[in-house]
């Protein structure tokens, strides 16, 4: 019996999952680790915590399993985090994470130095605080002693790879989020590196996601229980790996994740970017292809905020039941889900959440319905822009915690106006990493073949035409609200009390 191992280096925990060759989960472990916030808006993690979690998780899932039966290891996980190592391979400082917001000034300097239009041409994305390049500049500006010590720059999952194999390597999907990759040509951009004065020697070798990047070393084998010589495949950033795990690897397919944040991700076989930079274009885990992606900052977060503050005694299922008794449009109550600013479509850190149309007749059932609809409209914003860039999306797979809600699944189908699917397995990133490992080990002839063998549809939900028409009217009003109050957001951010 052969197995494949998938590792997901998440922000709050690591998921290590062992699968058989048909994608059935045999064992999994989820060791957790802390996020450090030394200042407001900062977020850091200790790379050693990731490695310790990987060791713990691998040993746990291998319990009772012959390590020689592990065909390959695949890696996925959080993107953009800056990992700086010295000459000996030791971390110079804590990793600065994707959600860290300290680099607004560096982003402005990148845009001024490279030029906004040229930046989109080279990296397919505007400069954002989440990306890695601005973090590198921040360390150079404010911690020159640490920058001087730095000999290698990696991303979070790639640090785990380094500890497993001794190799400095990354993949094209994760590298796309560094803002240093020529996304169209799938290689480091010499023009970006020169413009930002970053030494190419600091960066890892770039691979396509299914390629083997190294073998488990004797030292790593002793710690983890894996066999020395087990292949470790390049893997992918979390969303690109999740796309493989959900079978979103062909044109016309997409997935919608309703987690703390919300993501609309669509596959494309041609390189295409939004001229306004409202969505991201990255290389995907299928060699020679790409994906476009929009992000809603506070998707599930909006519902959890409402539950915590308005109806803490209710379960999510009970909240669903109340919302289901409330008509579409929540009787003219709308919600803008900008609790954490917004990325798509507005790129506005000053945007804030709004209940619009609140009156004395509204109950918490209306608030719940309005939140579900508002998040759905925000995800519709992402879908609309993506379709404007790459063309129609025929179907979407819904995943993440929000996918557990039957009401929300139907709402997405109705708001998008397309078929929605759920899957038999909800292993996401770890399963995608494992499929890529299987391709690298020669078990599956291609990423598509691996997905076709493993990914199974559980449910299909079709849009209800009557509902779609009602949502269309409310969405048009929702769509007008941001521009109406945009100036007020900016004024509020400058208000001094």
From TrEMBL:
Substrate binds at residues 79-80. Residues 3-245 form the Carbohydrate kinase FGGY N-terminal domain. Residues 257-440 form the Carbohydrate kinase FGGY C-terminal domain. It comes from Candidatus Aphodoplasma excrementigallinarum. It comes from the Bacteria. It catalyses: D-xylulose + ATP = D-xylulose 5-phosphate + ADP + H(+). Its EC number is 2.7.1.17. GO terms for molecular function: ATP binding; D-xylulokinase activity. This is Xylulose kinase. Catalyzes the phosphorylation of D-xylulose to D-xylulose 5-phosphate. Belongs to the FGGY kinase family. InterPro entries: ATPase_NBD, Carb_kinase_FGGY, Carb_kinase_FGGY_CS, FGGY_C, FGGY_Carb_Kinase, FGGY_N, Xylulokinase. The keyword Kinase applies. One of its GO terms (biological process) is xylulose catabolic process. The active site is at 238 (proton acceptor). Keywords: ATP-binding, Carbohydrate metabolism, Kinase, Nucleotide-binding, Transferase, Xylose metabolism. The record marks 8 as: Important for activity. The gene is xylB. SUPFAM superfamilies: Actin-like ATPase domain. HAMAP family: XylB (MF_02220). NCBIfam families: XylB. It is an enzyme of class 2 (transferase).
């Amino acid at each position: 019996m052969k197995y494949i191992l998938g590792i997901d280096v998440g922000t709050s925990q690591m998921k290590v999952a062992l699968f058989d060759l048909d994608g059935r989960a045999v064992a999994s472990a989820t060791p957790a680790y802390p996020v450090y916030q030394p200042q407001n808006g900062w977020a850091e993690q200790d790379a050693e915590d990731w490695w310790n979690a990987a060791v713990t998780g691998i040993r746990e899932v291998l319990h009772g399993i012959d390590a020689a039966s592990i065909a390959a290891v695949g890696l996925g996980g959080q993107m953009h985090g800056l990992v700086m190592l010295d000459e000996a391979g030791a971390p110079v400082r804590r990793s600065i994470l994707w959600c860290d917001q300290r680099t607004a000034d560096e982003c402005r300097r990148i845009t001024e130095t490279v030029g906004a239009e040229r930046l989109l041409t080279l990296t397919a994305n505007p400069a954002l605080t989440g990306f890695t390049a601005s973090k590198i500049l921040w360390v150079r500006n404010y911690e020159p002693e640490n920058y001087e010590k730095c000999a290698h720059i990696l991303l979070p999952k790639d640090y785990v790879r380094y500890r497993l194999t001794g190799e400095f390597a990354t993949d094209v999907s994760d590298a796309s989020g560094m803002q240093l990759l020529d996304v169209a040509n799938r290689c480091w951009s010499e023009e970006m590196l020169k413009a930002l004065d970053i030494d190419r020697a600091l960066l890892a070798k770039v691979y396509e996601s299914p390629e083997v990047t190294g073998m488990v070393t004797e030292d790593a084998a002793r710690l983890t229980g894996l066999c020395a010589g087990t292949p470790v495949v390049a893997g992918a950033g979390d969303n690109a790996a999740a796309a493989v795990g959900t079978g979103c690897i062909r044109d016309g397919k997409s997935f919608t994740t309703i987690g703390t944040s919300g993501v609309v991700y669509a596959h494309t076989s041609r390189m295409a970017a939004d001229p306004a930079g409202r969505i991201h274009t990255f290389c995907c885990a299928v060699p020679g292809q790409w994906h476009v992606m929009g992000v809603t900052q506070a998707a599930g977060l909006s519902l959890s905020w409402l539950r915590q503050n308005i109806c803490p005694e209710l379960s999510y299922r009970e909240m669903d039941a109340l919302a289901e008794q409330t008509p579409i449009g929540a009787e003219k109550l709308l919600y803008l889900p900008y609790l954490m600013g917004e990325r798509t479509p507005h790129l506005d850190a000053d945007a804030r959440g709004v209940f619009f149309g609140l009156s004395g007749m509204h109950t918490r059932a209306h608030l719940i319905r309005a939140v579900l609809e508002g998040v759905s409209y925000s995800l519709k914003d992402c879908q609309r822009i993506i379709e404007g860039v790459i063309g129609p999306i025929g179907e979407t797979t819904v995943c993440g915690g929000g996918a557990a809600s039957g009401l929300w699944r139907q709402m997405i189908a109705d708001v998008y106006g397309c078929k929605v699917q759920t899957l038999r397995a909800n292993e996401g990133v770890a399963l995608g990493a494992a499929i890529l490992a299987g391709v690298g080990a020669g078990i599956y002839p291609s990423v598509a073949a691996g997905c076709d063998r493993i990914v199974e549809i559980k449910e299909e939900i079709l849009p209800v035409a009557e509902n779609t028409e009602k949502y269309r009217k409310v969405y048009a009003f929702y769509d007008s609200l941001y521009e109406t109050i945009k100036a007020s957001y900016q004024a509020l951010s400058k208000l001094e009390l």
